[in-house]
Amino acid sequence: MTIFMIDTSVRKLVCYGMEKGLFDKRDEIFVTNKILEILDLDTFDCEETFSDVDLESVLGEILRYAVEKGIIADSITEKDLFDTKLMGAMLPRPSYVTDKFYELYKSSPKDATDFYYNFSCDSDYIRRYRIKKDLKWKTETDYGTLDITVNLSKPEKDPKAIAAAKSAPQSGYPKCLLCKECEGYAGRINFPARQNHRIIPVRINDSDWFFQYSPYVYYNEHCIVFNSKHTPMSINPDTFRKLFDFVKLFPHYFVGSNADLPIVGGSILSHDHFQGGNYTFAMAKAEIETELKFKGFEDIKAGIVKWPMSVIRLCAKDTDKIIRLATKILSAWRGYSDETVGIFSETEGIPHNTITPIARKNGENFELDLVLRNNITSAEHPLGVFHPHSELHHIKKENIGLIEVMGLAVLPARLKAEMADLKSCILENKDIKSNETLSKHYDWVEEIKSKYPVINKDNIDSVINDEIGIVFSKVLEHAGVFKRDEQGKKAFIKFAKSV
Question: Is 282 helix (H, G, I), strand (E, B) or coil?
Answer without folding.
Answer: helix
